[in-house]
């Protein structure tokens, strides 16, 4: 199939348009269905690397430190995310524990590690790393499965309910999860297709 670099096809309705010349932070949308067809990220990729490193630091704090500490009648209890997963497994809720482990630990961690692996050579040498195509596609597949914000919402609801029965002290991990949720929103907004643009130029923008 012959590529036509001066044309762009809408992924929503297959309408064909001349490829627009975009300036920094401009977005091109389909006139028929409103689908975003092209986006100029400006120098966003240069800020993605430090944001990704910050996400990994917060991710480590969120998983190695207690989420909350509960005190009741002189007794206290605290747990980490991994500890909560193990507790679920021990109470016969292995499926729920596995789901929590995958969506709040494994998938977000893999996404961040892949993002760091992709950004380092692009930022330092302007060259794609080995396995570039497979990893960009993998990021696009994993994106819907990272649900840290859902986990955080559940924890906050539980904290509010428990505060009426016991003293609940937020741990370092809870604050780290809050910061991580904000940073991940910014980091994962950087669409995987933008890597094609950064690495292969104009013709890379719509490559699969």
Concise structural overview:
This protein has helices at residues 44-64, 81-90, 94-125, 132-142, 148-162, 172-188, 193-200; strands spanning 7-9, 16-18, 27-29, 36-39, 68-72, 75-79, 167-170. The protein has 208 residues and is of the alpha+beta class.
Sheet-strand content, in percent, reads 5-15%
Mean pLDDT: 77
**CA-atom Rg in angstroms:** 21 Å
Structural class, judged by helices and strands?
alpha+beta
Large-scale geometry? elongated
For the terminal residues, how far apart are their CA atoms? 13 Å
Task: Record the strand order, biggest sheet.
Answer: 6-5-7
Tell me the count of domains. 2
Low-confidence stretches: 202-208
Number of distinct helices: 7
Number of strands: 7
Helix percent reads: 40-55%
List the helices and strands and how they pair.
Blueprint: E1 7-9, E2 16-18, E3 27-29, E4 36-39, H1 44-64, E5 68-72, E6 75-79, H2 81-90, H3 94-125, H4 132-142, H5 148-162, E7 167-170, H6 172-188, H7 193-200
Antiparallel strand pairs: 1-2, 3-4, 5-6, 5-7
Helix pairs in contact: 1-3, 1-6, 2-3, 3-4, 5-6
């Amino acid at each position: 199939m012959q590529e036509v670099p001066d044309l762009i096809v809408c992924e929503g309705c297959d309408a064909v348009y001349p490829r627009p010349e975009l300036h920094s932070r401009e977005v091109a949308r389909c006139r028929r269905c409103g689908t975003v067809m092209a986006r100029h990220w400006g120098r966003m990729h240069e800020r993605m690397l430090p944001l990704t490193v910050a996400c990994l630091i917060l991710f480590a704090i969120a998983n190695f430190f207690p989420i909350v500490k509960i005190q009741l009648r002189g007794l206290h209890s605290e747990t980490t995310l991994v500890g909560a997963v193990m507790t679920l497994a021990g109470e016969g809720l292995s499926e729920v524990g596995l789901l929590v482990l995958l969506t709040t630990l494994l998938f977000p961690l893999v996404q961040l590690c892949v993002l760091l692996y992709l950004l380092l050579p692009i930022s330092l040498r302007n060259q794609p790393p080995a396995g570039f195509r497979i990893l960009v596609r993998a990021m696009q597949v994993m994106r819907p499965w990272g649900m840290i914000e859902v986990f955080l919402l559940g924890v906050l609801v539980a904290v509010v309910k428990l505060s009426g029965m016991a003293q609940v002290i937020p741990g370092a991990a809870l604050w780290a999860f809050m910061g991580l949720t904000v940073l991940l929103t910014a980091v994962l907004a950087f669409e995987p297709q933008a890597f094609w643009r950064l690495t292969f130029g104009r013709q890379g923008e719509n490559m699969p």
